[in-house]
Amino acid sequence: MRIGELVALRWKDIDFAHKLIEVNKSFSHGYETPPKNGKLRKVDISQQLEKTLLLWKANQQELYESLGKSNPELVFCTIKGNRINPNHFRDWTWHECLKKAGARYLKFHTWRHQYAAFLLMNGVSPV
Q: What would the pLDDT profile of 13-22 be if each residue is shown by its tens digit?
């Protein structure tokens, strides 16, 4: 998924029963917009991603309850429940995550393409 799509992602867009994420919007220049090609698409959720998302959801709920706040709609948000800034994520958070993982720096979008290439090399259908 693109950064703008992740920033716009809501918990209701994730279908854990069918292991799918519905990508139906993006966030760019202060506005929610349709995804890049204007079409809704569905992204499969791997078993590892499902576990990670469920753990993130539980931790997020626990944090918000401890602060006396209702659970946020957004999957990725600030402590106040506001949308994260895509530029801050791209310029700071992403860089720090890669450093902690010991991975070389590649732009976020480049990793997206690397992952797609990895799947193709391992026989996963592009569809």
A: 999 999 999 9
Q: pTM of the full predicted structure?
A: 0.83
CB 3 within 8 Å of CB 90: yes
* Contact criterion met (CB below 8 Å) for 24 and 32: no
Residues 4 and 74: their CA atoms lie apart, in Å, by: 13
Dump pLDDT digits (tens) for 107-117: 888 887 888 88
Cα pseudo-dihedral 98, 104, 108, 113, rounded to 10 = -130
Residues whose CB falls within 8 Å of the CB of residue 72, separated by 6 or more in sequence, listed in order: 60, 64, 81
